[in-house]
Please model this.
Amino acid sequence: MSKNQKIATVFGGTGFVGTQVVRELASRGIIVKIATRVPERAYFLKPCGAVGQIVPYACSYSDPKSIAAAVSGADYVVNCVGILYEKGKKRTFQKAHVDTPEVVAKACKKAGVKRVVHISALGIEDCGSKYAKSKLAGERALLKAFPAATILRPSVIFGEGDKFFNMFAGLAEILPMLPLIGGGKTKFQPVYVGDVADAVVTALEGSSVGYDDLQGQIYELGGPDVVSFKEIYEILFAQTGRTRMLINLPFCIAKIEAAFMSLLPNPPLTPDQVESLKSDVVVGAKANCLDDLGLRATSMDMILPTYLARYRPGGRFGDQRDQAA
Model:
């Protein structure tokens, strides 16, 4: 390893987005320290780099000293920590989206970290959900402690292993009907996880954008396609070869049903998520975006077929078997 190699600490590095960020950083020759409660869960990422390049590091997000130790010696820090729903007193939006970013930012300031990138969420300024409010509060707390940080706000993120298209595709396999919450009018601008990872690296290295232009800036990340919730279903049906009846579900009724679902260990829908669906999740007309980072957005047509084909009747090669028969 070269003495001049940069070191990056990634919080939430074993998650859907974090995993892609770790891989992209490693491909650039950066030493990656994955700050995680259970280091063994990050072992699967070691093959993404050379021997010793990927370092799982035991870190308690509730302990400021542990977080300080995780960022010590790092040139870059990326925070990918985020949850979609709350469970009990330990798994709360306040702790994950507000307290952790604030402590990380303070530790980075004290340690002299050069660049900090924080993954937030798109549409949080106009949304009344608890999730959105906590994300917005987290941004403000982080920028107050580390004003030079860069905030990335992705829309719904797609890619192999996502929890959006995969969830609905899985439901379409077992249910004859699917809910069209609020009439399916909510607008989304899905963004590819690989583009989000590229945005993180660009924000850290300033490869196509100067460091001064990145400091304290917020970038809204969306793909080339703006689609409604109903159109999401139509795309899903086209990719999987499965058509299901869509049942219009008013927000008030959806919240009642979501309240029962939230009792499950991994709820597919919560009342707070229903509230989130009342607001569009699209890039603002005057917002900084992928283009401003020198990046070109990847379309869903390029990526969805690579992992949704397995939901087709008969599996990924079901069509070929039918033709052979």
Confidence is low (pLDDT under 50) at residues 321-325.
